[in-house]
């Protein structure tokens, strides 16, 4: 049985040399890059906005024990119910209990990475409950039986021709259907589902402590339909999504939209503060917010890497990452792919199984540069690597190899003890299988710099 790390290497190599995959990914990311550059140019002082966002998220993570109960109390004042879930199984169990009490059999879902994290669709299907994704990208990958490929753009790995073929096979639409025609077909298929669904499930981009509200951003309007027609609305949200005040949305909404897709503002932005009130005509009869931990407090306990919890899931670091652009989203084997996924996943799902993700980086720093909340992602990756060594999660071969290398590097006599030919033979002996068959082994020069210096100057300096 292969390990997760070995599967990553196999999948990464496969995708890195898949030219069609690279073409589609680079084309789609390229379109976002152009839009984001145009959008960011409209900020009067982008660096100041990033610093402000960073400080707000820092305050929230340092005071989670105070702001989350504040959110809970304010949300409950308007009739909402808050459920605290320690892990994915507990969240699944709570959702199933809500649905069983209401005898609910159908769910409409808006895009939510947290629901992917707890594998909600698979869980509901196993319990004979129909769960339908209503975001167009999510709907497409659900039809294919795949998870989302990207935090923001679930079907980024597919071309319009791929989607046209899928719709032709499933619904009989023409093979040459345009994206507009395919969207209209999806709308036609989904509209009736909103009206008949028993439960609507969403995530939330932000939890607002001072009003007890959740904020949801979307571009299609499907989340509004999911929260308006069904009698029950369940929002599943990571505990790190909290911000102090509704006034802070004036900063976070534009930052999220511009860094994610290049828009000045996402098309639909909703603030939901509980179930339908006595004087209101629309909205659910019951509203639940499930506050999910699922390893987040493990990350919070890390003094350096807790910055990973500042993330607002804009996807900018994925689009900037040269590794992600080459190997794609599925190779990471986690809902949160790319640089930010490589930071948080080892703490949320176990360092032993996912430490390899922190090595899947060139440490170029692009991810840190584009982050709207100034997370120093490349430094977090190095901290993860250090922790993996401290926790003794590296192989004996690796540990002894680096110990010998360090000893040799700290001693000029040991460094010069072997000739260049001997060092090359040693490199081939130790690293031939692990260096990668697409890369050439480095060639050590016949003589070291110190030896050449001594020869040319006649004495050792």
Commentary on this structure:
The structure is a single chain. By secondary structure, the protein is an alpha/beta fold. It has three domains: 1-42 and 303-394, Fumarate Reductase Iron-sulfur Protein, Chain B, domain 2 (Orthogonal Bundle), CATH 1.10.1060; 46-294, NagB/RpiA/CoA transferase-like (Rossmann fold), CATH 3.40.50.10420; 396-457, no CATH class. Helices cover 52% and strands 10% of the residues. It has 23 helices and ten strands. Strands 1-10-7-4-2-3 form a six-stranded parallel sheet, sandwiched between helices. A four-stranded mixed sheet has the order 8-5-6-9. A hairpin with a 4-residue loop joins β5 and β6. α16 packs parallel to α19. The longest helix is centred in the N-terminal third of the chain and has 22 residues, at 19-40. It is globular and about 95 Å long. The model has no long low-confidence stretch (mean pLDDT 93).
Supply database-style keywords.
single chain; 52% helix; 461 residues; alpha/beta; Fumarate Reductase Iron-sulfur Protein, Chain B, domain 2; Rossmann fold; globular; four-stranded mixed sheet
Q: How are the secondary structure elements laid out?
A:
Layout: H1 4-16, H2 19-40, H3 46-62, H4 64-77, E1 81-85, H5 88-101, E2 106-109, H6 113-117, H7 120-126, E3 130-133, H8 136-143, H9 160-171, H10 179-196, E4 199-202, E5 206-208, E6 213-218, H11 222-228, E7 232-238, E8 242-243, H12 249-261, E9 268-272, E10 286-292, H13 296-300, H14 316-320, H15 322-327, H16 338-349, H17 351-354, H18 366-370, H19 377-390, H20 396-409, H21 412-417, H22 420-431, H23 449-457
Parallel strand pairs: 1-10, 2-3, 2-4, 4-7, 5-8, 7-10
Antiparallel strand pairs: 5-6, 6-9
Helix pairs in contact: 2-12, 16-19
